[in-house]
Structure formats: C-alpha cells, structure tokens
Amino acid sequence: MKLTLQELTGLRQMIVETSNKVLNKYKLDNQNLLPNFDSIFIGDSMIEYFDLNKYLHELNAINRGIAGATTKLIKDNLDTIFGPIEPKYIYISIGSNDLVLLNASVDEAYQNITELIEIINKKYPNALINYLSTTPVVSIDHKLYKKIYIGGRTNGQLKALNYKVSTYATLNNINYLHMFDELLDEDKFLSSEFTMDGIHLNHQGYQIYSKIIQKYLK
Description:
Elements: H1 5-30, E1 39-43, H2 45-48, H3 52-55, E2 61-65, H4 71-76, H5 78-82, E3 89-93, H6 98-101, H7 106-123, E4 128-132, H8 147-150, H9 155-171, E5 175-177, H10 203-217
Parallel strand pairs: 1-2, 1-3, 3-4, 4-5
Helix pairs in contact: 7-9
C-alpha cells in the first residue's frame, strides 16, 4: 500500500528532523571520539536500533546507524558518520528506504547502493565492506502492517534488490550477508515473532540478525 503524496511528504519531513538530531549527536561525539574501533556499522534503522553491545559484544565496533536513512543521506554525510574512525571492517544496511523515500525502482535503488559502496571503498580502501541485505516485511493484510513505516515496499522488491546486490558483491570483493530468509514465516513474510510493527526487528529478530553475522565471523 503506497503512501499518498501528503503521507510521503510528512514522512520525509519527519526523517529530516530525526536524522538531523542523530547527525548532530555524531558531530558532537566526533570531537572526543578515539579512532580505536575495528568495525563500524552504518546505514538505516536496522543498524541504529541494533544494540551492538548486547548482541555483538565480542566486536570492537561502533554503531553509526540513522533510522530512515537512504543511500543519499549516507553519501551526503559520510564524514560525519565515520568521524575519525579508520575501520578495518564496514557493515552497511542500506537501500530499502530508497524504494519509499526516494521513490526509487529496484534498479535505481541497486545503482544507488553500488555507487555508495564504491564511494566508501575509495575513501576506505583498506577496509573490508560487508553488505547486510534488506530484511522482509509482513503481508499487507497483517495486523502488524504499519503503512507509514512499510510505505508500500514489498518482499518481491526487497528480494530482487538483494539478488542484484549479492551478484555485484560476488564480483567486487564485497561480503554479502543474507539476512532475509531466516526472518520469514511459513508464508514467506516477516514473522510476527520477530517484529512489533511489521518491518523493524524486536529482540527475537535481532537475535537472528546477529547470529547470521556471528556465523560469518566464525
């Protein structure tokens, strides 16, 4: 169920306000931040709401996620997001919001993602980039479906986007971590066990999310 123009305009304004608050916090933190983190997690709400100390305490990592982030927002604020950090490993979850907030097609979102990855790769050539795939949403008729959050994006779009990025990653020395399938229910939608609003993950969802990363680490 796509957002109306009025709903989309309101959502965009809300994201500008909330993301600016987060970016301003990062700017302040950067003034005293020591560059001694091996890993950085960047991207959208999947990252901002991901408690690294709780789920991946074994990593020497910093969380620089921004809920509602698009590829454009990340690209326009790279210096603020990374600050003084010169990471060995970069984990990025991005692209899903492009389908809604930038009104991008799957192909356009894919191009946005690969362009961002190439910019990051050029800026941090010694870092290993790990792309965390998009995650599923519940069905449109599910009681947890929240139009303002899901915004009309579909699992078909998300799966197609994942496939394109996974192919790109294979050819470009990027690690692709598939976060999608293990979050599905028997009907191939995001399981209600793992979400409170049809798209964002709850504690059980992040347990699955983090275990996929831990498998890769091992």
